[in-house]
Amino acid sequence: MSLIERFVNGVIEESGYTDEDRVYLCNRVMALVGEDGVHADTPSENLIDLKDELVTVALSNGKVGDTLDEQDCLGATLMDFITPRPSETNRWFWETYQHHPNQAVSDFYVLSKRNDYVKTKAVAKNIYYTVPTEYGDLEITINLSKPEKDPKAIAAAKKIKSSGYPACLLCMENEGYQGRIGYPARANHRIIRLNLGGEPWGFQYSPYAYFNEHCIILDIRHIPMAITRQTFVQLLDITDLLPGYFAGSNADLPIVGGSILTHNHYQGGRHTFAMEKAPLERTFCFQGFTEIEAGMVKWPMSVIRLRGADKTRLTDLADKILLAWQHYSDETADILAHSNGEPHHTVTPIARKKDGLFELDLVLRDNHTSAEFPDGIYHPHPDVQHIKKENIGLIEVMGLAILPPRLKDELKEVERFLLGETAAVAPYHQEWAGRLKADSPHATADNAENIVRQSVGKIFARVLEDAGVYKRTPQGQAAFMRFIESVGII
User: Less Cβ crowding at N or C end of the chain, within 10 Å?
Assistant: First the structure.
């Protein structure tokens, strides 16, 4: 069967089009990719593979440019054929949701994968494994899903005047946006409208997911991130609206915040992180909140866990802790709320609903710097930046490392170094590799990869310890309790 026949068959099968639309669809596809080559036979049956073949045909026909950005734009346009209009998508989501909330969420996720908005083929390239530590099994990923920057696209983008539209990657204006060189394709992008804490928000999936059903919940307004009482209200609302999903927010300050601080948003998904499994090391009761279970989590970062049945009461207590932390200083523990008029304290909050109770983790964050640690006192320190130099955001906080693509080849080189197949590695890995080799005299081709991977996992645990405000020492934990007592416990 020909390429265009298979693709049109797939569109009819996966959309509201019918057999009466077949000629129309063939003509519309040929208008996009050209007529030469579309009638050649193909063994492919998967719609995304067929889309990729059509893009190749378009390239040979001169119907699309030779940059990956231009080809992605065409690919998204082709997959838009099977994607319902935004109004239809929202209608069937909420009609299904009335009776089967889980099914509505599942159907939207399936659509987002089927139409190639969630890049399942690309995500499958990521390297993933777990490493046992004293904090549980930490997850390690080397992020290979996002395509490398295309030099041709970079050069072309410099010649194009930026329109400033959409204002950022999280704006509602991305829905259906064609894309351009230097800006990703969004023709097949859909957003579910929902209400959080009395405000209109949007719900979508992440194109390059880091975990199962990785979603983004975004403010329909392009406004900066801010951790406030409303944040806790909305995160807890999400756990009610999206059954089985956690919801969390990056911190709202540079260094400890995420990569996009200019647009208020949350992340969530159907995934259990190591931090969620971590037990409470100490429990206590906050004054005036005797119905809420509270405790200190056994975790490399400083986490207060709250658990209760009443969302409003949980919100009240979380807000009290946040306000206290924003203004709390303890110079004996190098804890400064402000310096030179700049605020340093915020939290990374994570909400869940388990066994009918709401759970809220508040991870204390501090972004101040020093002459010794100009990147941040509570940031990965220089001796571990060969593995992780980037900000420690929400996902890392919970125990999933997102490591840069460079490590794929660099770690293989360290394995070869352990086996004596090369005399040197990248300079920033040399000291670590030397210690690892001295500690692994019996490294073999069968175990070298595991030796390196286990070491990376232990380094990630150290990275999280660096980001922890209160260290896991008797002095650090005593200082942590001083803050908790300052909030008021009984």
Answer: C
